[in-house]
Amino acid sequence: MDIFKISERLMSMDDEAWRRHANPISVYTRFTCLPLLVLAIWSRVWLGWWSLIPIALACLWIWFNPRIFGPPDSLDNWASRGVMGERVFLNRHNTHIADHHLRMAKILTAASGVGALILIYGLVVLDVWATICGVIATVGPKVWFVDRMLWILQDHERGEPGPREETSRL
Q1: Where are the domains of the chain?
Q2: How far, in Å, are 15, 156, 157, 163, 165 from residue 169 at the CA level?
Q3: What is the pLDDT of residues 107-145, one digit of tens each?
Q4: Are 71 and 19 in contact (CB under 8 A)?
Q5: Are 130 and 122 in contact (CB under 8 A)?
Q6: Are 86 and 146 in contact (CB under 8 A)?
Q7: Cα–Cα distance, 134 to 151 (Å, whole number)
Q8: What pTM does this model have?
Q9: What pLDDT is attached to residue 161?
Q10: In b/e form, how buried is each residue of 81-100, taking b as 16+ CB within 10 angstroms?
Q11: Which residues pair with 95 in a beta bridge?
Q12: Separation between Cα atoms, residue 83 and residue 146, nearest integer Å
C-alpha cells in the first residue's frame, strides 16, 4: 500500500493540477486547509447539522486549492521546488530516490499520522489543547516533508543517485 499514491489519486492530481499547485500561493494557502477543516468540524458545537455546510466548503477548498491558481512564472522558489520534488518522489518506482530520503519521508508521514490521531481525539472530545497540538503535530512534519522534497529534487537535478535501471544492474 502506497499512501503517497493513494493521496495523489484521492486528490485527482493530473499534470495540469501539479503545474498549478507549483504556484507558491497554492502551496502557502494549502496550509490553511487543515485549520479550516478543523474549525468547520468544531462548528458542530454551534451549528449542529448545519456544520456540514462549512465542512463541505472546507473539503471543496482542499480539492480546489491546487487547481485555482495559475502555473507560476518561475519555479525558482522553495514552495515550487518542493512541489516539483514531490513529483519526483511520487515517481520513485521509476527513478531511484536515496534511501535516506525515503526513510525520512516515511518518518515524517508517520509523525503527521500521529499528529492526526491527536487531532481526531481533540475533535471528538472537543479538547481545545489536543486539537491545537494535533494540528501543529500534523502540519509541522508536512512542512518538513515539503523541504525534504526539495532535497530530492536537488539530487534528481544533479543526477544523484540516478535512474533505478542503472543502479539495479550494479
Answers
A1: 3-169
A2: 31, 19, 21, 11, 7
A3: 999 999 999 999 999 999 999 999 999 999 999 999 999
A4: yes
A5: yes
A6: yes
A7: 26
A8: 0.84
A9: 65
A10: bbbbbbbbbbebeebbbeee
A11: 163
A12: 7
